[in-house]
Amino acid sequence: MTAVDIRPEEARPAISLAEPGDFLSLLKPRVMSLVMLTAVTGYVLAPGGLHPVLAFVSLMAIAIGAGASGALNMWYDADIDILMSRTAQRPVPTGRVTPEGALAFGLSLSVFSVILLGLAANWFAAGFLAFTIFFYAVIYTMWLKRSTAQNIVIGGAAGSFPPMVGWAVATGGVSLESVVLFLIIFLWTPPHFWALSLFKMKDYGRAGIPMLPNVAGERSTRRHIFAYSLLLVPVGILPFALGFAGPVYGAASILLGANFMRHAWRVLKMADGDAAMVPAKKLFAFSIVYLFALFMLLLLEGTATDLLMAARG
């Protein structure tokens, strides 16, 4: 069975059974938490800033924009979500939210978030947020995801923009520092999702999504994971090397990077057809810890620096 075998009207009841929690699920709260962490980090590390109330409203607008992207993704992907164990219980494929309801919800939040950010911060940041939503919903979800095994590589840019948007909220532009934050997430995305795709190959195969293991094979995927990990780890240390992170971050990024490479090496040495996929599962889990730890440390160091400067001023 493939994605084209199930029509939306056959997969879902016609009447919405939605509860408030179902619309919250459409926002992909776990993804929103990562977006918030990285956007706030970009804002805190940037020079300058806004009145605290305007800063809070601006960062909430970014979170709402991320949720809007998630809702549009779930609307469009309902036909393949129902075929995969990881996504089959989402609100649209189960019929708790109608496709029309998810689309209207996503579009409304998209427009609202962009206008709110423009009014609270600046229109450069608002335009950047609009482009991010468009990139995720249209470029990645509607085009790349179903057409190329490089979907995660190119589409991963959408999830990498939030720290740049946060920086733009504070400064009205971008900088080398914000590009480095972008690159950390951009290079992290392929090994993170390819590790997932190794132990979810059957799911992606049923849905007809050309993830790298299904197209190029497990061995090639493991090599790609290792190669991207080699690129990621030094980039993860760059904030310290460039002077916008302190020694605590520097030491932690080296230790975390070494552990990331240890997991990537074990994935590289996995046997084809490894039923347990333990190394891939461990890399997937640790990659989440790695990214959250890096950005949390950057955020804490940046906040401490701001408080110290305020105390001296």
From TrEMBL:
Q: Which reaction does it catalyse?
A: heme b + (2E,6E)-farnesyl diphosphate + H2O = Fe(II)-heme o + diphosphate
Q: Name one GO molecular function term.
A: protoheme IX farnesyltransferase activity
Q: What is its EC number?
A: 2.5.1.141
Under Pfam families, the record lists: UbiA
Q: What residue intervals traverse the membrane?
A: 31-50, 56-76, 97-117, 123-143, 237-261, 282-300
* Family the entry assigns: Belongs to the UbiA prenyltransferase family. Protoheme IX farnesyltransferase subfamily.
What this chain does, per the entry, is described as: Converts heme B (protoheme IX) to heme O by substitution of the vinyl group on carbon 2 of heme B porphyrin ring with a hydroxyethyl farnesyl side group.
| Full protein name | Protoheme IX farnesyltransferase
- Could you tell me which species this protein originates from? Aureimonas populi
